Amino acid sequence: MAFSISGWLSNDIGIDLGTANTLVYMKGQGILVDEPSIVALDRNTGKPIAIGGQAKEMMGRENPDIEVVRPLRDGVIADYDVTEEMLRYFIKKVQKNKLLIRPRIVICIPSGVSAVEMRAVRESAERAGAREVYLIKEPMAAAIGIGLPVADPVGSMVIDIGGGTTEIAVIALSGIVTWKSIKMAGDELNDSIIQFLKRKYSLLVGERSAEEIKCAIGAAGALEQEIQHTCRGLDLVSSIPKTIIVDSSEIREALSEPVSAIIEAVRQNLEQTPPELAADILDRGIILTGGGALLRGLDKLLVEETSLPVIVAEDPLTCVVRGTGKVLEDISAYQKVLI
């Protein structure tokens, strides 16, 4: 009986507050929310009319009375009030019958955030209903989620490619030794596809369509067999809808600039890494996490460019939020990694 009561009372929450998606982990229950970080607002009242997946369905199709916004940009809060509303919605969604007990919340933040940006995340969570708020840096949460020995005197390197930022970190002894955070990630890949289609085909596509193309045929390196995808958009010359077929070699060309920027950031971080930790990375390899880890051929390209082993984590999209879940199981054991 005691166990069931404590399980009912426990409502600690881990949140991966991402630019593209927000994932919520409930202690003892696992991941209960995995939805886009998108909110649809009524322009007249300013109040949300849809959050998450429902709001994403409206993106690019809204009428003059509806505004669809992404309250996070480049890994940080761009719209304080809307982020608070979104957090409150997701917290209520996972709490259900535990509304009387305010939760302890662990939230992930990019490595490069300022003190002001950290305070904005903390205050948003508190106003959304948190009793206590702990912050953890995304690469550290990803490393914990994968099961890397973050407390040991051994170096582990994680590259977490999210929607707004790419987080690169070398971790040892419960701390981040060297890190680099760049605003070159999933959103930039999407934008590169939009600009490429506009430039080459005079075709205007939306953000959702660009993401579909990236997921369907996007690649960082040459594929054994090139693949094609049907793309629909607005012809900028005739101003009427048009359908074209693009292949993976074209999209690879479109993505070359942001992919090169990510690889250069990895190189720079490796240059700053102490030799003993560099030797550990040579033995253990680099771990890729986040949605960007799923880009075809990125792991092979990193192997070619760094001469280091590269491993794509199992279920890379959930590594960070699973890390918050492990922290929630024993917060006292992870005090050194919390902010």
Describe the structure in your own words.
The protein is α+β, with helices and mostly antiparallel strands. It folds into three domains: 2-140 and 319-337, Nucleotidyltransferase, domain 5, CATH 3.30.420.40; 150-184 and 255-315, Nucleotidyltransferase, domain 5, CATH 3.30.420.40; 186-253, Actin, Chain A, domain 4 (Alpha-Beta Complex), CATH 3.90.640.10. It contains eleven helices and 18 strands. A five-stranded mixed beta sheet has the order 3-2-1-9-10, sandwiched between helices.
Draw up the topology in text:
Blueprint: H1 2-9, E1 13-17, E2 21-26, E3 30-36, E4 39-42, E5 48-51, H2 53-58, E6 66-69, E7 72-73, E8 76-77, H3 80-95, E9 104-109, H4 115-127, E10 132-137, H5 138-146, E11 156-161, E12 166-172, E13 175-182, H6 186-201, E14 203-204, H7 207-217, E15 228-235, E16 241-247, H8 248-272, H9 275-284, E17 286-289, H10 298-306, E18 310-312, H11 319-329
Parallel strand pairs: 1-9, 9-10, 11-17, 17-18
Antiparallel strand pairs: 1-2, 2-3, 4-5, 4-6, 7-8, 11-12, 12-13, 14-15, 15-16
